[in-house]
Amino acid sequence: MSRTRSADRIADARVIVTCPGRNFVTLKVITEQGVTGVGDATLNGRELAVAAYLTEHVIPVLIGRDPARIEDTWQYLYRGAYWRRGPVTMSAIAAVDTALWDIKGKVAGLPVYQLLGGRSREGVTVYGHANGETIDEAMAAVAHYLELGYKAVRVQTGVPGLPSTYGVSKDQMFYEPADAAIPTENVWSTQRYLEHTPKVFARAREEFGPYVKLLHDVHHRLTPIEAARLGKALEPYGLTWLEDPVPAELQEGFRLIRQHTTTPIAVGEVFNSIYDARTLITEQLIDYIRTTVVRAGGITHLRRIFDLAALHHVRSGSHGATDLSPVCLAAALHVDIAIPNFGLQEYMRHTEETDAVFPHGYWFEDGYLFPSEEPGLGVDIDEELAAQYPYKPASLPVNRLEDGTMHDW
Fold it and tell me: How far is the C-alpha of 389 from the C-alpha of 353, rounded, in Å?
């Protein structure tokens, strides 16, 4: 059998860890002809684990490989590792895969979305995060996002009687939950939360009318029957989705939610393979699948998940928090613009320092994000500037019930 050999090979790859306000891990791949590609490998609170995986186990086997063989490289890193899947492995694979798509686009002289089939829409509808300690503060935040042009808004508020609540930030535009080197502890009450949350959306509909897309994140904190109760209570307010109502390890638990409410369900930001979502998608137990490029092994595997979802009336709703770097957001936008079953894209804005470290060509206008028209992903990392922001240990919080029992954060 004859063997073809690319005129170009991977000559080098390096991991760049930087903290322009929060920690990011970026892989840069360089070919013998000097073409570069970048991929996001950030895993919030576990960044150095992925950096070590890339440095010790992945980069040595990349050198000399054909950068054009994206699928083969993906399979090599996935099937070739006996210890498959998991967030560390899949984040590392995602970084390689994304960087290779970036290189392929540059070699072809095309933005990546053109290699995925071209545009299916003009722009990518995004949603922002409106939050406040009180309902009044949250409503003011919703109004602000609508003034900025957003057509979809996630709404979170403090819960009366609890000292802190997930999703409520000091800075309205740059929410970052990883707040200390050693995890801080929050206190949770499901009863207080279930009593309070419908009031938030009754007020939102009263103030902003029926057409604004409203979303809410439960953050895995309920049981299926509690989630069903909340979904039913929220039905009059027409949410676009109720996010992460329960921990998703038990996919069958979503059957119970489906039996009791028509509120649309979104889940998947912690998923790292198509197997995590298979039952939820094929049994139509969810409406939006929220996994994204860096969690799901890169553009190659994310597209597989979205293609399966398209067959079962499930739309995309990719995660887009600030712990996903502009490299990941750029890659997600190329997928978003191309797939037929796009739903929404989360868009938590990065700080000016982060945007400077990761120069990019995507832009926001009138509620939409638009991917770069430059060849490749249209994003890079300024390594000299990145070096000015050394890594700072930061962990996500943990959660306890009022009696001290550990609970899902």
Answer: 9
- Per annotation, catalytic residue among 166, 237, 368, 389: 166
Two tokens at 288? 């939006």
Q: How far is CA 38 from CA 104, 151, 181, in A?
A: 11, 31, 28
* Tally of structural domains, the chain: 1
Strand, helix or coil for residue 323:
coil
187 is a domain residue: yes
211 classed as catalytic: no
Structural domain contains residue 203: yes
Task: Please check whether residue 292 lies inside any domain of the structure.
Answer: yes
Name the E strands within 141-222.
Answer: 152-157, 185-188, 213-217
Which residues, other chains included, contact 4 with Cβ-Cβ below 8 Å and sequence gap of 6+? none
- Pull the structure tokens for residue 392: 């700072």
The sign of the dihedral angle between the CA atoms of 209, 321, 116, 265 is negative
Q: Which of 129, 219, 220, 334 is catalytic?
A: 219
Phi, psi of 249 (to 5 degrees): -55, -40
- Look up 313 and say whether it is catalytic: no
Check whether 364 has a pLDDT greater than 60.
yes
**343, two tokens:** 């739903």
pLDDT tens-digit readout, 163-203: 988 878 777 666 788 888 898 899 999 999 999 999 999 99
Q: Residue 140 falls within a domain, yes or no?
A: yes
CATH label of the domain that carries residue 242: 3.20.20.120
pTM of the shown model: 0.96
Task: Report in angstroms the alpha-carbon separations of 274 from 85, 279, 321, 333.
Answer: 10, 10, 21, 20
- What is the extent of the structural domain holding 129? 115-373
